[in-house]
Amino acid sequence: MFTRCIYFNLNTLTRNIKKLWDEAFKRHGLSPAHGYLLRAVLSSPGMSQKELADELLLDPSTITRFIDALSARRLVERRPSKDNARESTVVPTARGKALQKELEQTGYELYKSMRKTLGARRFDNFVKELKAVRELISPQD
After folding, report:
1. Is residue 127 predicted with pLDDT exceeding 70?
2. Long-range contact pairs involving 12-17 (C-beta distance under 8 Å, separation at least 24)
3. In the predicted model, what is the mean pLDDT of the chain?
4. Alpha-carbon gap, residue 102 to 40, rounded angstroms
5. Is the pLDDT of residue 19 over 70?
6. CATH assignment at residue 32
7. How far apart are CA 58 and CA 66, in angstroms?
8. Closest Cα to residue 90, out of 63, 61, 54?
9. Under DSSP, is residue 121 helix (H, G, I), strand (E, B) or coil?
10. Is 96 contained in some domain?
11. 60 near 49, Cβ under 8 Å?
């Protein structure tokens, strides 16, 4: 009935992918969203909240909530920015750094699994097309 509907098909795919990612990140005690934020902080310590929002394509208020949650778990901490007194930067704690290899491994396992399931060419083309469509449909500021 809804075979031509972008919303229906994308929403169904998103639910299925979310289940896989939730299961994979459960072993770290993190949601996938928190895991990706921590991975971003680990890969570029000292990013501002705005830079993290831009990197993860999320609203600043969402980033603030995620940082608050990771900070409460002592995985990241805010530090005053050296460049702007009104901004803070986000850095991983020792506890957060201890998860880096495991989080990277989880990401790699998910990548390998999806690439195997879809086939390398289909996977690569699918991700490329998703990014292109996302950019075309993104609301303009």
Report:
1. yes
2. none
3. 94
4. 14
5. yes
6. 1.10.10.10
7. 10
8. 63
9. helix
10. yes
11. yes
Domain residues for the domain of 105 are 6-137
**What is the C-alpha radius of gyration for the chain, rounded to an integer number of angstroms?**
17
pLDDT level of residue 83 (50, 70, 90 thresholds): confident
Q: Roughly what angle, to the nearest 10 degrees, separates helices 100-118 and 6-26?
A: 140
Average pLDDT on 109-124 reads 97
Res. 140: pLDDT tops 80: no
Tell me how far apart the alpha carbons of residues 74 and 95 are, in angstroms, rounded to a whole number.
Answer: 7
- Residue 1 maps to a domain: no
Count of structural domains within the chain: 1
Three-class SS of residue 129?
A: helix
Number of CB atoms found within 10 A of residue 56's CB:
16
97: its two tokens: 């750094």
Give the span between the Cα atoms of 13 and 124, in whole angstroms: 17
Structure tokens at 74: 């002592």
Task: Say what the pLDDT of residue 141 is.
Answer: 53
> pTM of the prediction?
0.88
C-alpha span between 97 and 39 (Å, rounded)? 9
